[in-house]
Amino acid sequence: MKTIDNYLPTEDFDELCKLIMWNHSFPFFLGEGVAEGENIGADFNNWYASHVLGADNKIFSLLNFKVKVLLRLKVNFYPHTDQIYEHKPHVDYDFNNKAALLSLNTCDGFTRLHDGTKVDSIANRLLLFDGHESHNSSTTTNASGRWNININYWDNGGSYVDTVEATGNRVRSA
What is the rounded end-to-end Cα distance, in angstroms, of the chain? Predict the structure, then answer.
């Protein structure tokens, strides 16, 4: 696990946020439950909205994130709730993969990793972790919503090799 604060230059980060947050022309799709097997039922806090993208778009270009194989690029929105709602743990994929999570806003929401580490949602913070290990998300109480971008990828042509390294304020594969 690694966090990189101020991952993107301010100008690029601001442009990224304008493309996604509160942009009426950027569609989101509602999901019932965040983790597999969850559903809303009587608990109306257990929903989120997302938008899955491909690699050929302006958002991925602005991220300046180089990988060997992109598995998924997804924008997430978790709604404001009166109390923090911590979603059930899940894995992104049940095979070896790397995950990068870029927070688009600062709020009291967080991501909890398999070992209990809690990583706060801070605007322009990039979290790097193993996407095949259990983790969970949360809602927020002090913002209108929690926004992030989730990238799942393989390094080194599909084999799991931890070669992502920080270079200045950017991340690239070695």
Answer: 17
φ/ψ of 14, rounded to 5, equals -60, -40
CATH number, domain containing residue 48:
2.60.120.620
Between the alpha carbon of residue 22 and those of residues 19, 117, 134, 156, the distances in Å are: 8, 30, 30, 36
CA distance 61 to 58: 5
> Using the 8-state DSSP alphabet, how is residue 38 labeled?
-
pLDDT of residue 154: 87
Q: What range does the domain containing 79 cover? A: 2-35+44-173
What's the pTM value of the predicted model, to 2 decimals? 0.83
**What's the rounded Cα separation, in Å, for the pair 100 and 119?**
12
> Is it the case that residue 125 has pLDDT exceeding 90?
yes
